[in-house]
Structure formats: C-alpha cells, structure tokens
Design a protein that fits this description.
It contains three helices and four strands, in the order βαβαββα. Strands 2-1-3-4 form a four-stranded mixed sheet, sandwiched between helices. The N and C termini lie close together (about 10 Å).
C-alpha cells in the first residue's frame, strides 16, 4: 500500500483551502486501490497523542506538510502547497 499523510491544522488558511479544493478532488479522481490517504491533525485543538507521535516520527514542523510512504518507507515529504494535478502526479509516481 501507498500511504499519504496530510498534516492539517484547523486554524491554517492554506489547509482550509488546499484540502477541499485540491486534496479531496484529487483523491476522488484517483483510481488506485492501493493508495490510502489520512488527514493528520497537527498542532491544533483536535490533535491527539497518536498524531503528535506521527508528526515527531516524520519530523513535521509545519502544517500542510505531506508525506508519502511506500512499503513503510518515506518516499516523499513536501511542505509546499499543491494543486490537484500535483497530488495526482506525486501519488502516481509513488505507485510505480
């Protein structure tokens, strides 16, 4: 499986735009049964101990960070804002 992690903060204006306008549309269009995506709360009032541990494990220091794992290994980490097409491209690369 390919695992996609999006570190989301409910107070972040970038997260509030990127998730509904790029991330969700990309996953809705995605036709890859071996890809699973998770929104991980980061540094907000909804963040739990497991989410804090994930952020520490992947050395996340900024909201709207993205991590792609393949076979349990990190293959991409990005702090950039992405459009829908970039989500589709990066996920497709990870599946190859």
């Amino acid at each position: 499986k390919i695992i996609f992690l999006y570190f989301y903060a409910n107070w972040c204006p970038i997260c509030r735009v990127e998730v509904p306008q790029a991330l969700f549309p990309a996953f809705n269009e995605l036709d890859e049964p071996n890809v699973i995506g998770f929104r991980v709360n980061y540094n907000d009032n909804e963040t739990d101990a497991n989410e804090k541990a994930l952020a520490e494990q992947f050395e996340i220091s900024y909201q709207h960070s993205k991590v792609i794992l393949k076979n349990g290994k990190e293959v991409l980490k990005s702090l950039e804002t992405w459009e829908k097409e970039r989500y589709l491209t990066e996920i497709q690369k990870a599946t190859q």
